[in-house]
Automatic annotation (TrEMBL):
SUPFAM superfamilies, alphabetized: Acyl-CoA dehydrogenase C-terminal domain-like, Acyl-CoA dehydrogenase NM domain-like
Protein name as annotated: Acyl-CoA dehydrogenase NM domain-like protein
Xref: Pfam families: Acyl-CoA_dh_2 (PF08028), Acyl-CoA_dh_N (PF02771)
GO terms for MF: 3-methylbutanoyl-CoA dehydrogenase activity; flavin adenine dinucleotide binding
Taxonomy of the source species: Eukaryota, Fungi, Dikarya, Ascomycota, Pezizomycotina
Domain Acyl-CoA dehydrogenase/oxidase N-terminal: 38-128
Alphabetical GO biological process terms: L-leucine catabolic process
Acyl-CoA dehydrogenase C-terminal domain mapped to chain residues: 260-401
InterPro entries: Acyl-CoA_DH_C, Acyl-CoA_Oxase/DH_mid-dom_sf, AcylCo_DH-like_C, AcylCoA_DH/ox_N, AcylCoA_DH/ox_N_sf, AcylCoA_DH/oxidase_NM_dom_sf
């Protein structure tokens, strides 16, 4: 079945950055600065691109030119070999300018390192070499609430059939992570496959209010085959899960890791909204002439100063919390990647609750700030041409991914009962 042709941005518009951003950054601060440089490019026309809603092929090319797709990979294959706390800060910087591209970067970094967490050491090495040496972008057809992607075994191959309602970044990816349940079992399998093949058919139906450039629409999977050796964390000879890989708390770190990806692009979007609104207020917002304490400038009005100060304080506190959680998770990876079975359930649970705290706060503060900035910019700031609305639309869209009320409940049980969260697809 031929794939539909959809409007897409032109990668050639960013071709000059391929040479400009060579070689790769070397230090952690250099990597974060590179993310800021990418954000500066994206900010120039972010509102226009959001409204045009074209498939982000150019934006993915820009990420490739920047080297950010390689940030977490081993140096021996050409990667940056940075820890996750640096990756989170890079995601945040990109999301300040464009929430969609910050989200795509975050998901790529997660999916490109999934083998580190749920795969064998050999699978992790092979995956890194493939992705980094080719500068591949990785999407994911992973949505555990959908149970309609089935896996069957056919000799030395796995066969995927079914669909996923959500599939982030797949349309513009080189590789796609597939996830489903092996027939006759309740066991899930992750595997990376080439995206450009007849059996992967995208619905091109992502027409949501926010994160419009993430290509998060549906996908049909029709007889997609991959060797059993690509089943992450499974023994290809016995066709059984490797208990030394999947049977330890380390494998369940994948879920807190992606939850903190979410929180960091929420935080980046919220900070970006405040910075964008501040520029608008200083240049365009008019003072209110009927308040009885009239000012010559909007930036002298008490309520505007008070709101900006309050938003800034809450975002600064949220950023400190997110950084601390990122450091704690990165420390677990540094300590246990080469000795996975020694990570305890208690250590995993504690870091999961740090990350749950970040999820609650970034959701609450992010929605409050991206909604509240309209109160201090004025009615004219609602113009689509201004583009201030995209920040709220982006956060509102993704914070519905998994209900934050359950994170609050989880934290309540942790505080009152000292109960560690049971690892799930969302915990």
């Amino acid at each position: 079945m031929a794939q539909a042709t959809v409007p897409a941005t032109d990668p050639s518009v960013y071709s000059a950055y391929q040479d400009k951003w060579s070689p790769l950054p070397t230090t952690s601060e250099d990597w974060i600065n590179r993310a800021r440089e990418v954000a500066a490019v994206l900010s120039q026309d972010a509102a226009q691109r959001d409204q045009e809603n074209k498939s982000p092929r150019a934006e993915v090319a820009l990420l490739k030119h920047s080297g950010l797709l390689k940030l977490l990979g081993p140096r021996k294959y050409g990667g940056g070999e940075q820890p996750w706390d640096v990756a989170y800060k890079a995601i945040r910087e990109v999301a300040k300018a464009d929430g969609s591209i910050g989200m795509l970067l975050g998901y790529h970094l997660l999916w490109s390192t999934t083998a580190n967490v749920v795969g064998t050491a050999e699978q992790a090495e092979r995956t890194h070499e493939l992705i980094i040496s080719n500068n591949y972008f990785v999407g994911g057809a992973v949505n555990p609430r959908d149970s309609d992607l089935k896996i069957t075994s056919d000799g030395d191959q796995l066969v995927f059939n079914g669909a996923k309602f959500f599939n982030t970044g797949g349309v513009v990816s080189d590789l796609t992570v597939l996830e489903g349940v092996l027939e006759g079992t309740d066991q899930h399998i992750f595997a990376l496959v080439e995206t450009r093949q007849p059996g992967i058919q995208f619905a091109h139906n992502w027409h949501n209010i926010g994160l419009r450039l993430t290509e998060s629409g549906g996908v049909k999977i029709d007889n997609v085959r991959t060797p059993w050796t690509e089943a992450l964390g499974w023994d290809a000879s016995t066709k059984q899960p490797r208990q030394d890989v999947l049977g330890v708390p380390f494998a369940s770190l994948l879920l807190p890791t992606i939850q903190l990806v979410f929180s960091n692009f929420y935080l980046g979007i919220a900070i970006g909204a405040l910075e964008f609104a501040a520029k608008y207020t200083t240049s365009n917002t008019r003072p209110w002439p009927f308040g009885g304490d009239n000012k010559d400038s909007a930036t002298d009005e008490f309520y505007i100063l008070e709101r900006y100060g309050n938003f800034f304080a809450h975002l600064r506190a949220t950023e400190a919390l997110a950084d601390r959680a990122g450091e704690k998770l990165a420390a677990l990876y540094a300590r246990y990647t080469s000795n996975r079975p020694t990570l305890t359930a208690e250590e995993r649970g504690e870091v999961a609750e740090w990350i749950a705290s970040v999820k609650v706060v970034t959701t609450d503060v992010g929605l409050r700030v991206t909604n509240g900035v309209f109160e201090v910019t004025g009615a004219r700031a609602t113009s689509l041409k201004v583009g201030l609305d995209r920040f709220w639309r982006d956060i509102r869209t993704h914070t519905l991914h998994d209900p934050v009320a359950y994170k609050n409940r989880e934290l309540g049980r942790y505080v009152l009962l000292q109960e560690l969260p049971t690892p799930t697809w969302y915990t």
